[in-house]
Amino acid sequence: MAALILFGGGGDLAMRMLLPSLYFLEHDGLLPEGLKIIGAARSEESADDYIAKVHEAVKARAEADQAWDETSWSRMKARLDYLAVDATSPDSLKPLKDKVGDGEVTSFLAVSPSLYARIVTAMKAAGLADKNCRIVLEKPVGRDLKSFLEIDDAVAHAFSEDQVFRIDHYLGKETVQNLIALRFGNTIFEPLWNNLSIDHVQITIGETVGVGDRWPYYDEYGALRDMLQNHMLQLLCLVAMEPPSDLDPDSVRNEKVKVLRSLRPVTVDEAERVTVRGQYVAGVSEGKPAKGYDEERGAESDTETFVAVRADIDNWRWAGVPFFMRTGKRLPEKRTEIVIQFKPLPHSIFDRDDRGEVQANRMVIELQPEEDISLTVMNKRPGLDRRMQLQPIKMSLSWGVPNSGDGKSAAPPRRRIAYERLLLDAMAGDSTLFVRRDEAEQAWKWVDEVSEAWAESGLKPDEYVAGTWGPDSADMLMMRTGRDWNTTDV
Ligand code: BG6
């Protein structure tokens, strides 16, 4: 029998993401035959009560996606079980071990990372870290390089690296994988994918939500550690890495880690020029009044809810091509995109009279709210005007838009939760879309340098009004280099 244990099985991540993901996999017939799903948490409740809660959470989510059906649920229900445990105690874990027996066991730690070290030690003692076992660690693993290494050493003591799956759920997003397909499944982009043709890259992860009740966690981490250390640097790696020789986990991750090693450190002198910290004050978000971060937190705080950074990758391919990254809470839109901005024409034969400005080509890889990859190219405006007029046209390069070559519009498949792919991969032992120890280490190293530079230079967050695109200093970061953040569609 194979088993998936969800530590923290009654918590927010499990109820909002993991169990709905498992339901969708069940619905599509993708869960391994005979798999048992066992919730494990502190709360003393019966399996029936737990299953009733799972039912409520999963049904609400599946109905919203029009994917609820009782047959799939009864199949999933038959797999579900619950055990109240103190996961830091080997004795308490013994009944869990007895339940799962000697089959393949994947344990997902959806609990506070401050417990990881104690839990993995107890798991080892209870026989839940044997050769047939795997562990999935939700981010953030650590708060800096030092704490990451402390936790990871405890993990390495119990599990070998090929048993460890460090999740970055951005890697499970469909468009992120499509980026790999686009870059390495086509020949036409590779000759352009370098400093000869690309002017700069922008990565934006905008969120409309505020920090709200999450502040006890968030206040310790801030946008730098919550988003940039992981999701944004992972996206940067996928854009910037060299073609791997294979799609196996190590070939891909070897290339990603080289990118992280090539990131230019942010020094104290440079901090103000290449980074921006922001914190939202009261404003209007999605048409409703929104509190400032300090008010939510109930006290003044120096934690940034917005960060923008100019990163430089010191290698042959990317010399002179800045990567601008920005992310924040309480921005005007939930929008995640990577913009590959190509260089302008070396010489334009069109920019005369009123022929329209020639815009440089731009590829936008949109992860949210839509999933799409588009390329903006200049076209002739149709008509008989003797002076040729140009206009930008946005072409979709992905399945998201009815433009699939044969002229027929195929309905895009349901948008999957990123965890669906990652849960399947972890259970199958495929770590390509997970973060290797040295990757996480390098990412922390670079992020530590940024936060040390902030501490030494005394850089405090600039205010921005909730519902706006961050502080003015974030626009200045771009404008100083003669560039702008991407805001318009075409
Ligand atoms: C999480 C962060 O990792 O990612 C959250 O901790 C953030 O602060 C979330 O809101 C964003 O994920 P997504 O998939 O909604 O963009």
**Class derived from helix and strand content:** alpha/beta
Q: DSSP helix count?
A: 14
Strand order of the largest sheet: 16-15-14-13-7-12-11-8-17
The end-to-end distance, rounded to whole angstroms, is: 53 Å
The gyration radius over C-alpha positions equals 24 Å
**Overall mean pLDDT:** 94
Largest sheet: 9 strands, mixed
Q: Which small-molecule species are bound to the chains here?
A: 6-O-phosphono-beta-D-glucopyranose
Low-confidence stretches: none
State the CATH class of the largest domain. Alpha Beta
Q: What is the second-level CATH architecture of the largest domain?
A: 2-Layer Sandwich
Q: Examine the coordinates and then state which fold CATH places here, giving the name of the CATH topology of the largest domain.
A: Dihydrodipicolinate Reductase, domain 2
Strand percentage lies at 15-25%
Counted up, domains total 2
Family: Belongs to the glucose-6-phosphate dehydrogenase family.
Binding site for substrate: 169, 173, 207, 226, 329, 334
Keywords: Carbohydrate metabolism, Glucose metabolism, NADP, Oxidoreductase
Function: Catalyzes the oxidation of glucose 6-phosphate to 6-phosphogluconolactone.
Question: Could you explain the architecture of this structure?
Answer:
- By secondary structure, the protein is α/β, with parallel strands linked by helices.
- It has two domains: 3-138, NAD(P)-binding Rossmann-like Domain (Rossmann fold), CATH 3.40.50; 172-479, Dihydrodipicolinate Reductase, domain 2 (2-Layer Sandwich).
- 37% of the residues lie in helices and 20% in strands.
- It has 14 helices and 17 strands.
- The chain has helices spanning 12-27, 47-64, 70-79, 90-100, 116-125, 145-158, 174-184, 215-240, 249-262, 268-274, 293-297, 418-428, 437-457, 472-479; strands at residues 3-7, 36-41, 80-84, 105-109, 133-137, 164-166, 198-206, 275-281, 283-285, 288-290, 306-311, 323-328, 335-342, 362-368, 372-380, 390-396, 462-465.
- The strands form three sheets. It has a nine-stranded mixed β-sheet with strand order 16-15-14-13-7-12-11-8-17, with helices on both faces. It has a six-stranded parallel β-sheet with strand order 3-2-1-4-5-6. It has a two-stranded antiparallel sheet with strand order 9-10.
- It is globular, with a radius of gyration of 24 Å.
- Bound molecules: 6-O-phosphono-beta-D-glucopyranose.
- Residues 207, 226, 336 line the site of 6-O-phosphono-beta-D-glucopyranose.
- One of its GO terms (cellular component) is cytosol.
- Belongs to the glucose-6-phosphate dehydrogenase family.
- It comes from Brevundimonas intermedia.
- Catalyzes the oxidation of glucose 6-phosphate to 6-phosphogluconolactone.
